[in-house]
Specification:
2 strands, about 40% helix, mainly alpha, glutaminyl-tRNA synthase (glutamine-hydrolyzing) activity, about 100 residues, two-stranded antiparallel sheet
Length: about 100
């Protein structure tokens, strides 16, 4: 398998709008060649009879049933508020008039 060349790395750098020095081009060419080799090895192992998965173990959602329960009344909800107005929490104004 031919390795990735320095010129190909320079071309990818131009497409990515990256400015790379000569030393960086050589370093990245070797790294990209290793990455491409690793991906090729994985492709060799992949079998057609094994379905693709996103997780090695089967996952199922565990959810409780949706049961309607009574909530707080407005008076109960506002009972601990420092200030209330028209059955709402009263907070200090942080924005000016527009």
């Amino acid at each position: 398998m031919p390795g990735i060349t320095r010129e190909e790395v320079a071309h990818l750098a131009r497409l990515s709008r990256l400015e790379l020095g000569a030393e960086e081009l050589d370093h990245l060419a070797a790294q990209l060649d290793d990455i491409i080799g690793a991906v090729a090895r994985v492709a060799e192992v992949a079998a057609d009879d094994i379905p693709p998965t996103s997780h090695p173990l089967p996952l199922t959602n565990v959810m409780r049933p949706d049961v309607v329960r009574p909530g707080l009344t407005p008076e109960e909800a506002l009972s601990g508020a420092p200030a209330a107005e028209e059955q709402r929490f009263r907070v200090p104004r942080i924005l000016g008039e527009e």
